[in-house]
Amino acid sequence: KHCFFFIAVAALCLLCAFNASVRLNKRSAFYEYSNTYADFSAVLLSPTEQNRDYICGVFKIIDGPFESSGEKLLIKIYEPDKNVTLTPGAIYSFSCFVTLPRPKTNPGGFDYRLHLKTKGILSLGKCNFSDMTFLGESNENFLLNSLYKFRIKLCETLDSCLNKDASALIKNILFGEDSLDDKILESYRATGIAHILAVSGLHVGIVYNLILWVVRPFKLNDRFKFIMTGAFLMTYAAITAFEVSVLRACI
Length: 251
Known about the structure:
Number of helices: 8
Helix content: 40-55%
Order of helices and strands: HEEEEEHEEHHHHHH
């Protein structure tokens, strides 16, 4: 029994190592054609992040040049329309300037290219909002896209019901959205409580205890309670776009 268990664990570790090696050594289809403009259509995979100057999102190419179909890239969209919300599952056509992520420049330094590769992202794109056109909706990952759209609707509700700073604070705590004003963010850092803004085990613990408090009156058995709380926690992890800290805490 112990020998079988050891072999199974060793096989799983080797499989994971092989998978990681394949992913981290994979080259972008734009490797020999970087720093060039390309026309392609792509689907938005997860909620976008808003910056002062641009919107940033992860897209998967559906129809592109250089056999790039299926490749994921991170696109920064400048001069965005404030009245238009980019929703996961939406398909857009792009005229985009494509580059490769920068590798580490100093020994032992941060390797941005390797960091993106761990997320399956092989290239970067830059374009203006006027350089993209909405084509339609994708039926791929329907459940996950529905959860992302629920998150967007919830954020819009917070924006409409609360003032700007309060809404930004709640969105930051719930979903890890980087929407707080720089002065407010600096005040949290100065008082040493900026860690509450990073979605992590603290927030997952609050959600977990809230679920237990809700189901307590129903006198459920432990096994069913475990399955239900686990399902709720993984749903919360999906809504946060599977942030590493949230996924670790949920597991």
